[in-house]
Design brief:
This protein has about 425 residues and is α+β, with helices and mostly antiparallel strands. The chain is built from 13 helices and 18 strands. Bound molecules: 4-amino-1,4-dioxobutan-2-aminium adenosine-5'-monophosphate (4AD) and magnesium ion.
C-alpha cells in the first residue's frame, strides 16, 4: 500500500489540512482525556494531540499503547500553535501502529557516557545528537559549495597507501597481498599531483591516525578536507582559509537555527566569525606564552593548553604562522628570508577548540626536496612519483587540511569530538 506521507518539517505547507506522517514516538504524556504525543520523523519534531471525545475508540486505545520509540503512521489536521516550538501541532484523527517495542535502552533519565557510546546506534535518535548530525551535514554542504563555486575540482586520493605523509609514528598498518600498506593519514601528497593536473583541487575523505592519545580532540578515524592550489603562495593560502571558515560558520547560522537552539549554542560568538582573522607568528606566540608563565622554549611544539591560552586572546580563529622548520613536516617551504622557519600556519579555533587547520606552502625546488628526503630518511624509491612533481613543471603551490570533526565540535559547542561523527572510532572503542 502506498501512502502519501508528509514530513514534519513541511507541515507548514498544510495548514488546516490533513497529513499522514511516518514517525516514532519520542515521548508521551497524558491528562486522562487528552494524550500528548511527541513525534519525530528525522526531519523534525511535532506534538500530536489525541482527544478522547473526538477520535474513535480504537485510535484512543492505540495511542495508549505507544511506548518510547514505537513506530507508527499518524494522520491528523495541522493546526498553527504559537505556543509550540515548531509553531504547529497535529490534531490526531488516525493512528496505525507498525511496532510497539518494550524496554528501549535509552530513557529520558541521565545515562553515563560509556553506556551511551555502547548504544550509539540508538543514541543518535536523541534530539541533541540529531541536531549535531544535521549541523555536520550542513557543514559538509557548505564546504562543497565553497569550493565548487570557486573553480575547484573534487579529487579523491587513495585510502590505501604505500608510504606516509605526516610522519611514521601513527600509521595503521595492513597487508596488501604480499606488500605492506598503510591507511592514509592525509591525501596531501596525491592532491599536490592533482593540483598540477587540475589547478585547484580539494579532497574530502576519511583519514586514519593510530594516535595513542586519549583527548577530547583526537579521533582515530576522522574526515579531512584538503584543498591544494597551484600558483598560490603562503599569504593567499591564509586568505582562502579565513574565507572558507567564515563561509562555513555563516552557512550554519543561516540554515541550522533550530539545531543550534537545541544545543543551546551561544550564537553571538559565531556571528562574529568573519574574515579577516588575526595572525601571529610562532615567535610572537612563544613570547606571549613565556610572558604569561608557560614553560616553553623556542623550537618546542605547542600543546593544547598553549593553544588555548593563545586563542583566548581573540574572538575569532587565529593563525599561528612561521613555525620552526625542525618541528614541521618535510614538505613545507622554508621562509626565503629565514630558513629556520617555514611558510606554514595552523588555524586555532576560539573558545578552546584547538587547531582546526594545518597548512603550508610546499617546497617546489627539486634540490631542496631531495635534501629533505635525505634529512628525514625517506625512501626516494617509495616517493619517486612525488619527486617527479618537482622535476616536471614545478610551480609554487600551497594547501591545507581542515579537520571536520573539530570544526563540528567548535561550531556546535561540544566538549568532545566523540559526538561529532556518527560512529566514532576512539582509542579503545571500535563498537558499534
Ligand atoms: O595538521 P594536520 O596533521 O595536517 C595534515 O595532515 C596536512 N597534510 C594537511 C594539508 O596541508 N593538506 O591535520 C590537519 C587537521 C588538523 O588541523 C585537525 O583539525 C585535524 O586535521 N586532525 C584531527 N582531527 C581529529 N582527530 C585527529 N586525530 C586529528 N589529527 C588531525
Ligand atoms: Mg597539525
Amino acid at each position: 500500500m502506498s501512502r502519501n506521507l508528509s514530513m514534519i518539517r513541511d507541515v507548514d505547507q498544510h495548514k488546516d489540512g490533513t497529513v499522514t506522517i511516518g514517525c516514532w514516538l519520542h515521548n508521551k504524556r497524558s491528562s486522562g482525556k487528552i494524550q500528548f504525543l511527541q513525534l519525530r520523523d528525522g526531519s523534525g519534531f511535532i506534538q500530536a494531540v489525541v482527544v478522547k471525545s473526538e477520535v474513535p475508540e480504537e485510535v484512543w486505545e492505540a495511542a495508549g499503547k505507544l511506548t518510547q520509540e514505537s513506530s507508527l503512521y499518524v494522520t491528523g489536521t495541522v493546526r498553527e500553535d504559537t505556543r509550540s516550538k515548531s509553531g504547529y501541532e497535529l490534531t490526531v484523527t488516525g493512528i496505525e501502529i507498525i511496532q510497539v517495542p518494550t524496554d528501549y535502552p535509552i530513557t529520558p533519565k541521565e545515562h553515563g557516557v560509556d553506556y551511551l557510546m555502547d548504544h550509539r546506534h540508538l543514541w543518535i535518535r536523541s534530539p541533541r545528537q540529531r541536531a549535531i548530525l544535521v549541523i555536520r551535514a550542513q557543514i559538509i554542504r557548505a564546504i562543497q559549495q565553497f569550493f565548487d563555486e570557486r573553480g575547484f575540482h573534487l579529487v579523491d586520493p587513495p585510502i590505501l597507501t604505500p608510504s606516509s605523509c605526516e610522519g611514521t609514528t601513527n600509521l595503521f598498518h595492513t597487508k596488501y597481498f604480499d606488500e605492506d600498506a598503510f591507511l592514509t593519514q592525509s591525501g596531501q601528497l596525491y592532491m599536490e599531483a592533482a593540483a598540477m593536473a587540475l589547478g585547484r583541487v580539494y579532497s574530502f575523505g576519511p583519514t586514519f591516525r593510530a594516535e595513542k592519545s586519549k583527548t577530547r580532540r583526537h579521533l582515530i578515524e576522522f574526515w579531512m578536507i584538503e584543498p591544494e592550489m597551484a600558483f598560490v603562495t603562503h599569504e593567499e593560502n591564509l586568505e582562502v582559509q579565513e574565507q572558507f571558515v567564515s563561509h562555513i560558520v555563516q552557512s550554519v547560522l543561516e540554515n541550522c537555527g533550530k539545531e543550534l537552539e537545541v544545543l543551546e549554542r551561544d550564537t553571538s560568538k559565531l556571528r562574529n566569525i568573519q574574515a579577516p582573522f588575526p595572525r601571529i607568528t610562532y615567535d610572537e606566540a612563544i613570547q606571549f606564552l613565556k610572558a604569561n608563565g608557560h614553560e616553553i622554549e623556542w623550537g618546542e611544539d605547542f600543546g593544547a593548553p598553549h593553544e588555548t591560552a593563545i586563542a583566548e586572546k581573540y574572538d575569532k580563529p587565529v593563525f599561528i604562522t612561521h613555525y620552526p622548520t625542525e618541528i614541521k613536516a618535510f614538505y613545507m617551504k622554508p621562509d626565503p628570508n629565514r630558513p629556520e622557519v617555514v611558510l606554514c600556519a595552523d588555524m586555532i579555533a576560539p573558545e578552546g577548540y584547538g587547531e582546526i587547520i594545518g597548512g603550508s606552502q610546499r617546497i617546489d625546488d627539486p634540490d631542496l626536496m631531495e635534501e629533505r628526503f635525505t634529512e628525514h630518511q625517506l625512501s626516494k624509491e617509495a616517493y619517486q612519483w612525488y619527486l617527479d612533481l618537482r622535476k616536471y613543471g614545478s610551480v609554487p603551490h600551497s594547501g591545507f587540511g581542515l579537520g571536520l570533526e573539530r570544526t563540528v565540535a567548535w561550531i556546535c559547542g561540544l566538549d568532545h569530538v566523540r559526538e561529532t561523527i556518527p560512529f566514532p572510532r576512539l582509542l579503545y572503542r571500535l563498537y558499534p
